TrEMBL record:
<feature type="domain" description="LysM">
    <location>
        <begin position="90"/>
        <end position="132"/>
    </location>
</feature>
<keyword id="KW-0472">Membrane</keyword>
<dbReference type="Pfam" id="PF01476">
    <property type="entry name" value="LysM"/>
</dbReference>
<feature type="transmembrane region" description="Helical">
    <location>
        <begin position="20"/>
        <end position="37"/>
    </location>
</feature>
<protein>
    <submittedName>
        <fullName>LysM peptidoglycan-binding domain-containing protein</fullName>
    </submittedName>
</protein>
<feature type="transmembrane region" description="Helical">
    <location>
        <begin position="43"/>
        <end position="65"/>
    </location>
</feature>
<keyword id="KW-0812">Transmembrane</keyword>
<dbReference type="InterPro" id="IPR018392">
    <property type="entry name" value="LysM"/>
</dbReference>
<keyword id="KW-1133">Transmembrane helix</keyword>
<dbReference type="InterPro" id="IPR036779">
    <property type="entry name" value="LysM_dom_sf"/>
</dbReference>
Amino acid sequence: MESEDTIMNGMMAVTKKEQVRIIAGLFSPAGVIAAVRRLDIRIIHAILAAVLLIAVTGIGGRMIIANASVKEGQNALERYYTSITIEDCDTLWDIEARYNTGAENKEQYIRSIMQMNHMSSDILYSGQNLIIYYYGQPQTN
């Protein structure tokens, strides 16, 4: 039977005094290094695998969301690209209203167009060429 001063930590019994000493040692740089050295390589691999899984899941989730071009209940739409020439008084919001069919929110569409065209400002000039995209039904051959 254990005494009250001993705590079972996995398969190893540790006294409260030893636990306090271990925890206090972890707050010093030497304690952190010593703790890392004590870690079993399997634990390090498990941690790295978890971090990698989280990163891949996050990136994959963003790609799925970014490539989503269909509202619920609609047929699949494909993204098509074209080049346009800016005319007098055109704005990014005018272009968004003309080419975004509602498959994407306005702000995201404008940010995407600015990013594709390496724009740091939303100012457009007459005669300027922009690459834009729009959504349409898949073409069948």
